[in-house]
Each structure stands twice: as C-alpha cells, then as structure tokens.
Amino acid sequence: MSYLDIRNLKKRYTKNGPLVIDDVNLSVDKGEFIVFLGPSGCGKTTIIRMIAGLEDVTSGEIMIEGENIVGKQPKDRGVSMIFQSYAIWPHMTVFDNIAYPLKLQKVGKDEVERRVRSVAQATDITGMLDRYPAQMSGGQRQRVAVSRAIVVEPKIFLMDEPLSNLDAKLRVSMRTELKNIHEKQHSTSIFVTHDQSEAMSMADRIVVIYKGRIEQIGTPMEVYMDSATKFVAEFIGTPPTNFFDVTIREIGGRLKAVNNSFEFNVPDELEEALKPYEDKEVDMGIRPEFIGLSPELERTEWHLSDTVISFVEPQGSHSILITRIGETEVKIHTTSHMYIKPSTTAALNVEPDKVMFFDRETTKRIRKP
Ligand SMILES: Nc1ncnc2c1ncn2[C@@H]1O[C@H](COP(=O)(O)OP(=O)(O)OP(=O)(O)O)[C@@H](O)[C@H]1O
Q1: Could you tell me which CATH number the domain at 242-359 has?
Q2: How far is the CA of 254 from the centre of ligand 1 (A)?
Q3: Which residues of 175-191 are buried (b: 16+ CB within 10 A; e: fewer)?
Q4: What is the pLDDT of residues 80-91, one digit of tens each?
Q5: Which ligand 1 atom sits nearest the alpha carbon of residue 38?
Q6: CB of 19 closer than 6 A to ligand 1?
Q7: What separation in Å is there between the alpha carbon of 17 and the centre of ligand 1?
Q8: How many whole angstroms from 212 Cα to the centroid of ligand 1?
Q9: 242-359: same fold as 4-235?
Q10: pLDDT tens-digit map of 103-119
Q11: Is the minimum distance from the CB of 193 to ligand 1 under 6 angstroms?
C-alpha cells in the first residue's frame, strides 16, 4: 500500500452527464512531488478538489495511509490546498494569516509562534511577518498562502496552478522556491499545471491527463523519452514531436514506413512489433532534436527525405529549422551552434532508436515485444 492510493475514481457533475473523470488510478509515495499535467478541461482540478473534499466523488476510493477519506469533511482529511488566486486575508498581518489555521485547531500560543516562524523561514518571509498583504508583491503573497497551507503539516499538500497569476520571470523563480520548500518540509505534494515546462522542471513524477483519463505516469525523462501515447508525445516537448501519416509495407524483403514523400526503413528492433501492422496506417513520430541534418546530402540507412529549409529561428544555443516533407511541416532542433541558411538543401537522417510509432485506433505506442 502507498501513502496515497486513488482507486477507480470517477466523476460526473450531473446524473446523466459525461464522465469527466474516467477511472483514474494512482499511487503516491510519502514525500513525492507529483504534477498533474494536461490541457484545459482535462479534469486536473476536479481530481484534486475530490482529494480535498471540495467536490463529491461519483465512485471510487481515495486512501490516505490506508484509510478511505471519501465522505469525510475537508477539515478532517489532513489535506491543505492553495489556489491560483492566493486567498489571504487583507486585514490580517502575514503572521496572523499564517497562524490562522493553527488558532482554529486551538494550538497553544507558544507553539503557534514556533511553527509560524519555522515555516516563514522555509518560505523566506521572516522579515515580513508584521506586514499586511497590500504591502507585498504577488510572489511574496503566494509564499504567504503556501506558508499558511503547510503550517498545519498536512499529509498532502495540493496546489492548483499556484503560479499562473505571476509574471513570467517570477513564475520561473517560484518553481525553484516551491521545490525547495517541498524538500525542507518533506511534504507529499500534488501540483496542477497545464504548462509542460513547469511540470518537467518540478515533478518527481508527472501524471499526464487527457479527457479525464491518465495517459501516462512517469518521471519527466520517462514521459519525454518514452512517451506512452500519441497525446503524450504531442503535448510534451517544445517544439512538439513531428508526426507523419505512414503505411507499413514490406518492400524488397524489408519492412518500411511509407507515404507519398518517403520510404523509411523500420528500425530492426521494431520489425516484429510492426509486422502485424503491414498494409495498415500508423502514426510515426520523431522529436525535433532527433532529426539530423546533412547539408552535404549524406544519406544513412535511416534517411527520411531530402528537403529545403524554409525558415531558420536562431535561439542562441541552437536553432529551430522549419521545412516541409510533402504536406507535413517539420521542425528540426539543431544540436549545435551551426548556422544553416534558409534555402539550404539538406538530407534528413533520423536516429533509429528514437523513432516512435503509434496505433491509429488506441493511440498507444507500438513497442518492441
Ligand atoms: N461544476 C461543474 N459542473 C459541470 N461541469 C464541470 C464543473 N466543473 C468542471 N466541469 C467540467 O469538467 C471537466 C473538467 O474540468 P476541470 O476544471 O477539472 O479541468 P482542468 O483540467 O482543471 O481545466 P483548467 O486547466 O482549465 O482548470 C471540464 O469539461 C469542465 O467543463
């Protein structure tokens, strides 16, 4: 049994309405930092509101340390939550804001003093305890909201897009701060975001959610390098994965992924997995950094196509090149500082073990058996 176990969780907002959460299962270990990642409307907020007890569960169980908390009052669940709009009270000092939940729990005065100061140290607002929220910046107010949520030492700390009201620069620095606070407090945290770079930089494990279902659970590197579905490969990474419509065919005794623009040799290790797809259409995905460019027109066994580069977007450390293969726009992320001029003709070769194929119907990755 894990620290938090979510089993067969389902949610309908109305009796005959759609299942907005459709059989979610998740186990979280004590001290983990979990990020729920997915597009707007996929159900992230609904799940954490059900954990917090702010929303009814249609069916399923939410177990914390082996006890099913479904049906319990929010205040009895040992869970704290902060929101996008950090609701702190304007008429109270920072100290009183943080102390408030402890006073509700009738914690003694000395203990309140000790815990507020200890949390304020972790969130780096010790010098501001006598201020009022109006005298603070957005980032500082969000730190007060975090302090107030963690001062009660919750079993689970839930955060619903807590950084989205902050400006871009502060957002990035608050990521590191929140992660630091998490490390110091050893809290078990669930953080909701639709921003994949926020998820990648903060999570121990990412839960990718789409249309009320979990697409994949994994470390940031796992969901990036080993995407389980077409949605995950598309949603994670900037620029996103390039996709091609291809048909699997045997040509000259070799399995190939074919369309009007290329005949690409299926990598050896995927031959067996792709054999049942012969004469069927599948989606082929390649991340922009796994397409190699040869202006000398050198073609390897894993040659995709020759092409003319249409646009170049220099990024300093690398460039993003934009081209077309047939009807498909393709983005290439160069791995060096080399500058390629627009209108350059080049051969595109692929790293064979980085090519992904997805089943058209299930959208799942076709893996070697
Ligand atoms: N109170 C409600 N009544 C009916 N439907 C709702 C209600 N709240 C949310 N929904 C629907 O449930 C689905 C999931 O919504 P939810 O807010 O959980 O998504 P989300 O992933 O958190 O989105 P966002 O990133 O935009 O906040 C959506 O289709 C939404 O329209």
Answers
A1: 2.40.50.140
A2: 48
A3: bebbbebbeebebbbbb
A4: 888 877 678 999
A5: 21
A6: no
A7: 13
A8: 10
A9: no
A10: 988 999 999 999 999 88
A11: no
Chain-centroid distance of CA 78 in Å reads 25
d(CA 96, CA 134) in angstroms, rounded, equals 14
* 49 ligand 1 Cβ < 6 A: no
Instruction: Give dist(CA 52, CA 99) in Å, integer.
Output: 21
Q: Which atom of ligand 1 is nearest to the CA of 46?
A: 18
The CB-based long-range contact list for 84-88 (8 Å cut-off, 24+ gap) reads 84/160, 84/161, 84/162, 84/164, 84/165, 85/165, 86/141, 86/142, 86/144, 86/145, 86/162, 86/165, 87/145, 88/133, 88/141, 88/144, 88/145, 88/148
Domain boundaries, the chain: 4-235, 242-359
CATH code for the part of the protein at 4-235: 3.40.50.300
Classify the complex by whether its ipTM is higher than 0.90, answering yes or no: yes
- Cα(20) to centroid of ligand 1, in Å? 8
